[in-house]
Amino acid sequence: MLSAARLDRIRRGVTLAELLVALTIFGLVGAVIMRVLMRQQRFYARAAEITTLHASSRELATLLPSDLRGLSSGGGDIYAMSDSSIDFRYPAGSAIICKVGIGTVTIPPTTLASRAALTSWLSTPQLGDSVLIYDEGPTNTITDDSWKPYKLTAAVAVGSCPTTTGFTTTSAEAAAGYTLALSSTPPSTTPAGSMIRFFRRAHYSFYKTSTGEYYLGFYDCPGGVCGTVAPVSGPFKPYAATGSGIQFVYYDSTGAVTTIPANVARIDVNVRGQTSAVSLNEAARAVYVDSLVFSTALRNRK
């Protein structure tokens, strides 16, 4: 007969039936855990997609008004416009005239000890860029004041902005000025102290990328040479005549829709976006839709 110790050693193992039961339980628990993890993963991915959609819409509400608000429709700042794009004068900098020469003007340096921003630009102006120079007109009234357009006919060169102008305080600052070669000589009604605005042609459009998604794209034209459109915000719903992902609507001073650039007083932008369809359970698939409408009144409207 087997001793008690022998029987105890034999009973320390598990039977095949017990092993199968244990594996089944472990499998069920593992399946439940994996299901919970997958649901959590889908939830966080969904939340991130919705957050991105919100951010893209709100981003446009900050970006576009800052670029469009200062346009002068009556002054020709809008070159072309449609329900999905707009071409306009893009402010690239400003400066004060130190002195006027034959076909040239001199401006202060970009850095002054006084920290006054008399000259500032996004990037150094190039040959082919355009400027608007303020012309006071022949009388002291504002009715004959205007902005005169000029082209830069050469790259920006070193120039002298004398301390006698009051715009520089040291000889080093005076020697660090810039000279701009213009397409014509400004008139005598444009004296020292007149304002200069640098600008370039720029373009916003709602376009389809190579991936098939629709984004708001942008390019500008430094030196008159336009770049390639690049996405700045999106993706949004596809383009359509109605219900488009981004739609520009232009109004005149009476509140009527207009297609004439010179008559634009307000620009409304309709933004519509949606997430991709995601399974919420075994039967349902849903998309999250977000929309936003914002208006920009042109400060220099006609």
Task: Explain this structure.
The protein has helices at 4-10, 16-68, 171-175, and strands at 78-81, 85-96, 99-101, 104-107, 120-121, 130-135, 146-151, 157-159, 177-181, 195-208, 214-220, 230-236, 246-251, 266-274, 278-279, 285-286, 289-297. With 302 residues, the protein is α+β, with helices and mostly antiparallel strands. Strands 1, 2, 5, 6, 7, 10, 11 and 12 form an eight-stranded antiparallel beta sheet that branches. It is elongated. It starts with a helix and ends in a 5-residue tail after the last strand.
Describe the structure using short key phrases.
302 residues; alpha+beta; 2 domains; 8-stranded antiparallel beta sheet; 4-stranded antiparallel beta sheet
Instruction: Label the overall shape.
Output: elongated
Number of strands: 17
Number of domains: 2
The percent range for strand residues is 25-35%
Let me know the largest β-sheet.
8 strands, antiparallel
Structural class: alpha+beta
* Uncertain residue ranges: none
Element-level helix/strand string? HHEEEEEEEEHEEEEEEEEE
Taking all Cα atoms into account, the compactness measure Rg is: 33 Å
